[in-house]
Specification:
Elements (H helix, E strand, L loop, with lengths): L2 H5 L3 H19 L2 E3 L2 E2 L3 H9 L2 H19 L5 H24 L2 H26 L6 H34 L1
Helix pairs in contact: 2-3, 2-4, 3-4, 3-5, 3-7, 4-5, 5-6, 6-7
Length: about 170
């Protein structure tokens, strides 16, 4: 059993932390990089490390919905529902990879999934929905800012987790 699980056995404690991280995610959702790309996912990626992958998925998914809502669902509600599911899955995978390997590999996987993978999943959906920004244009417009935001969110989550982990020892 790793040290994180020893310190946070109580479900109530995990739920309190989860609520606090969702609130922090809301604050991050107000710090926009481009459109509905914001600093909302850092708490989700941190939760995946600190509380476990399932809690990270919950925080990351809710964090995106908060960002989408504060942005007016710029890409339509159906697209933001898909992104919410992506964020939850990617935070979960990030947490699992971190537990099984290390922060560097998990960060690379998280940035690639969230920055490039999500756009490749969404591009055909944007075309199918006939959004003004769709297909290849959507990919070109979103990959760089989303990858940058993903890197910032994930690296911050890892740094904060490492600081807290050191202090807990």
């Amino acid at each position: 059993m790793n040290s994180r699980n020893v310190k946070l056995r109580s479900t109530t404690t995990k739920l309190v932390y989860t609520g606090m991280l969702i609130a922090i995610s809301f604050v991050g959702s107000l710090i926009k990089i481009q459109g509905s790309i914001a600093l909302d996912s850092m708490p989700g990626f941190f939760a995946a490390l600190f509380l476990g992958p399932v809690y990270g998925a919950l925080v990351a998914g809710l964090g995106h919905i908060l960002t989408a809502a504060t942005s007016g669902f710029l890409l339509t509600v159906p697209i933001h529902i898909v992104i919410t599911l992506e964020m939850a899955v990617f935070a979960y995978i990030f947490g699992v990879v971190y537990e099984k390997s290390n922060g560097i590999i998990a960060s690379i996987v998280g940035i690639l999934l969230n920055g490039i993978g999500s756009v490749l999943i969404l591009a055909p959906i944007t075309t199918w929905l006939q959004l003004p920004l769709n297909g290849k244009a959507f990919i070109m417009a979103m990959v760089v800012p989303l990858s940058l935001a993903s890197a910032v969110n994930i690296i911050l989550a890892c740094i904060i987790y490492k600081i807290i982990e050191k202090r807990a020892r």
